[in-house]
Amino acid sequence: xxxxxxxxxEILYRTSFRIADSAEFRLASGRYSRYYIDCKxxxxxPEARELLGRLICHLLDDERFxxxxxxxxxxxxxxxxxxxxxxxxxxxTLRAFVIRKQPKSHGVTDLIAGHVRSGDRTLIVDDVLTTxxxxxxxxxxxxxxxxxxxxxxxxxxxxEDDGKQxxxxxxxxxxxxxxxxxxxxxxxxxxxxxxxxSGSAGSLQRKSA
Length: 209
Hints:
The chain is α/β, with parallel strands linked by helices and 209 residues long. The protein has seven helices and ten strands.
């Protein structure tokens, strides 16, 4: 899976990662940072979704679940991608759902949209982990609906504000595919490559002169 991991990191870096000279990006936690990650940009692309499904299903190994979902809207494309991949790979039905932040004002007003049942073994997914609060909200609401939540998988862990530890306090195993450090290393490598290319071009120009 190393090739798939590297390719998805490349897509995330090219589409979803921003670096500023100063801490100008306001995060969901209210804190400001030089680094911003918007995984929804990457998930606009079918290649990224295909890679993501492969990587998460590989990470699950032999662990089995009845349902996969999380808080709207970031979790839903991840949940449907994992559900589709699981079905293609094994024929297993892993039902996808999304947890609304507020109940609908019409029709069935349940917070959970999707076919889930009390007692379902449930995987919670999310895009970016900072404090872990959105994932914790999803875990709490899923459990209130009778779902059995033991595992959470995130696309990117910023490794800030004890997000992973905050989730694990709720008796949930938490893992991620990427970290903010992975993206920063990718950015540094890209910048170094550009500098080397620029230096080589300048040297060739001097020789030609």
